[in-house]
Every structure is written in structure tokens, then in C-alpha cells.
Amino acid sequence: xxxxxxxxxxxxxxxxxxxxxxxxxxxxxxxxxxxxxRCVSLYMLRNNIGxxxxxxxxxxxxxxxxxxxxxxxxxxxxxxxxxVTDKIRxxxxxxxxxxxxxxxxxxxxxxxxxxxxAKNINIIMEGRDIGTNVFPNADVKIYLDAxxxxxxxxxxxxxxxxxxxxxxxEILANIKFRDNNDKxxxxxxxxxxxxxxxxxxxxxxxxxxxxxxxxxxxxxxxK
Length: 223
Hints:
The protein has 223 residues and is α/β, with parallel strands linked by helices. The chain is built from 9 helices and 8 strands. The chain has a single domain (4-222), classed as 3-Layer(aba) Sandwich (Rossmann fold).
């Protein structure tokens, strides 16, 4: 039986970084669901497909190929066999990914892909609705949170490190917009699962967050 760790939380709460580090430490396959939605967003931008064009969206969802591969310890993402790891983090994708993720047929397709990717392997998966929708029976559920201001600072630092031009005010506005979108959506809204453990990462170093989660997972495995 596969062991599943689900990490949910708002944008910039540290889900992706934590999932990578904890996955590596405990030999769990890390699946980045946010990157999958970013791949869909990039495809739509490149092909001038609007958010309301459900027929075109449905058509390409039937043939789109999204892959996550580990290249010497670095997670890389491929859209129809093209490596797009950096492209999916650019500003134009970031500005629409939240809206794309709220399109019901997109959500349904990505959940299908996520469940298929997780078959028969021990995984740690992060996103918005992993513990509530994708894997409601996950062995461990974590809800990570942090203040909007702290999340904006983190995203700005990440962008600077990757050479992506951005400014704090724009990032903060986008995070608040995404928070509202995610929490009020009628398609898999961002909510804390009843059995999820809440961790506020605002004043915690990434190492402290990872240790908390590793301890929780190890304790669960002992039971």
C-alpha cells in the first residue's frame, strides 16, 4: 500500500520547497501539482486560448503531455516534450495560473493525472486541494500557512534568485488575489482538511518546518 503525504496551503506558504526537502529526506516522490497547472497556463498563452474557450481547452486537455522528471536531483517540467521549468515561473504565467486552476475541466484532468502519477509509489504531493479532494484518505495531511506579506517576500527572493524581474507590491497584490480566488472558488476551494495538521511558517526557518513535518510522518509510520 502506497504511503501518501498531502500538503495544502496558500501560494507562497513554502509547500513546494518543503515537499522537495522532506521527500528527499524520507525517500518520497515529490509531485508538484502547481507546476502542472502552470504548464496548462503556458500552453493556453502560447496558443491564444481564452479562459472562457471551454471547447478549445477540452480539446487540448485530451492530448497535452505534462511530465515531471528528476535530473541529477533537480526537478524539471516538460510540456509536450519541451523543458519549461523556468518558463512556467514567468510573470505572464503567474498572472493567470490561479484562474486557469479554477476551470472545472482543467481541475478534473489534472486530478486524474495526479492520481495516476501516484499509483503504487510513496509520495508527497502539495497543492490546494490534495488532502480534501485529490487524496482525501492520505496518510498524513499538513496545512501550511504564512502571512501574505511574508509569502510575498519569499516569492520576491525566489524570483530574484532565478533572474525573474518582479517587485514586491505586484507580488503581494497577486498573492492576495490568489488567496481570495482559491478560498472562494466553487471548484475545489482551498480549505484546511478536518484531519490536517496546521503549521504557521511565518516565523519559521525552512529547516524548522521540515523537521516538524518529518517528525509527524515518522510518528505516523510507527503507528
